[in-house]
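Example S7 (structure tokens).
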């Protein structure tokens, strides 16, 4: 059974940093693109960042470019999202997702972790 478990969310002040983790099990982690998405209250879920299976390629939403960094450790089956200079508008539930190489859709999703940013 595939599981993606996010952790590291919490309550921070604007300007602070957080690192989210996504621990994967039940899949061959190294052949999956990993992604982070978020859903703010009253809004649609949106893409945040993704990283290729071998970490050679990353991409980011414009809203987080230069502040967030996605990474992965294929020896530990974990993906990370380092979030710096957090803004009020970063408040959301953050989800990690896994997409098998060559697939068009995201195959698996985690349950999400809450990030709350206060002024």
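Recovered sequence:
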């Amino acid at each position: 059974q595939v599981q993606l478990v996010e952790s590291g969310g919490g309550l921070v002040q604007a300007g602070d940093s957080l690192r989210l983790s996504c621990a994967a099990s039940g899949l061959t982690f190294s052949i999956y693109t990993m992604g982070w998405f978020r859903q703010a209250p009253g809004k649609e879920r949106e893409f945040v960042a993704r990283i290729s299976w071998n970490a050679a390629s990353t991409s980011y939403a414009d809203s987080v470019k230069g502040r967030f960094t996605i990474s992965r450790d294929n020896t530990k089956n974990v993906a990370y999202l380092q979030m710096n200079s957090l803004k009020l508008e970063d408040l959301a539930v953050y989800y990690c997702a896994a997409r098998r190489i060559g697939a068009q859709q995201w195959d698996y999703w985690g349950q999400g972790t809450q990030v709350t940013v206060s002024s």
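Notes on this example. The first strand starts at residue 3 and ends at 7.
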